[in-house]
Amino acid sequence: MTPTLQVFLIVSAALFSIGLLAALSRRHAIFILIGIEMMLAAANLNFIVFWRFGPQHQPPVGVMIALFSIAIAAAEAAVGLAIVIAVYRHYRSTNVDEFNQLRG
Amino acid sequence: MNTAAFIVIAIVTLSAAMAAATLRKLMHAALSFALAIVGLAAFFFLVGAEFVGLALVFIYIGAVAVLIVFTILLTRRDVQKDRGFNWSGVLIAAAVLASLTWSILKTQSTAIVAPHIRALTVKQIGQALMTTYVWPMQCVGLLLTAALIGALLLVIEEKP
User: Fold this and answer.
1) ipTM
2) How confident is the model over B99-154, as pLDDT tens digits?
3) Of chain A residues 10-39, which have a CB less than 8 A from chain B?
4) Partners of A98 in the β-ladder
5) Which among A75, A83, A44, A80 has a CA at the least distance from the CA of A62?
6) Which of A17, A28, A72 sits opposite B26 (nearest CB)?
7) What is the pTM for the complete model shown?
8) Which residue of A has its CA nearest to B137?
C-alpha cells in the first residue's frame, strides 16, 4: 500500500498545527518566527503534494508556487529577525509580552 | 512511493518540529527546526520534486536557520530568564489539527494514490521561470533586494 494524498495532507496539517502551537504559546519572539516559518513550510508541502497527485500541466504550477513561497519566506525571515534585534536593543528583552508600546 | 520511507520521514519531521516548538533552550529549538526542514525536504524528494527539496535545504538551512542562530547569539543576555508558556495556544492548535484532520478524512476525493508521471527536470523548471513566470520572478528578486536593504536599515545603530 502506497501513501495516499490523505496521509500527506494529514502530515502537512500536523506540521501546520505544530507551527501554530509554537507561534501562539511561546513568549519568545524568535520562537514565534520559527513557528511562522514552520507553517509556511507546511503550506509548501501542500503545494508540492497537490502538484504530484493532480493532473499534470506543462508549467508545473505547484512547484513554481512552492519556489516563490520559499523565496518570500526567506525575505520574511530576514526582516522579522532584524525587527527582533532592533526591538531587543530598545527593550533589552525578547519577551513579546513586554513589548507594549510602539513609541521608540 | 515507499511506505516505510514515508513513515520514517513523517516520524522524524513531526518529532523534530514538536521539539522545535516545545524545547526550552533556544539553540536546541533552532537545530530541531533545521532537522524538521531536512525531513520536509526528504518529503519533497519522495514525491519527486528534487529541485524544490534542494532549494528548501539551501534556503531554509543555509540562510534562515543561520539567521535564527545569529539572532539567538545577538540577543543572548536575555535567554536565562524564565519564560511563560501559554496553554491556550495548545488548545487552539489541537482544535485546528482536529478540524483539519476531520475535513481531510471526510473528503473522499483525497483518497487517491499518486499517478505515474514523467520526472520533472530542472530544464522544465528553468523554462517555466524564464517564460510564463518571468515577471513574478523579477518581482521576487525586487522583493528580496528590498527586504534585505530594509533588514539592514532596521539593525543599523542610530547615532545620537
Assistant:
1) 0.89
2) 999 999 998 887 777 777 778 888 888 998 899 899 999 999 999 999 999 999 98
3) 10-11, 13-28, 30-31, 33-35, 37-38
4) none
5) A44
6) A28
7) 0.90
8) A68
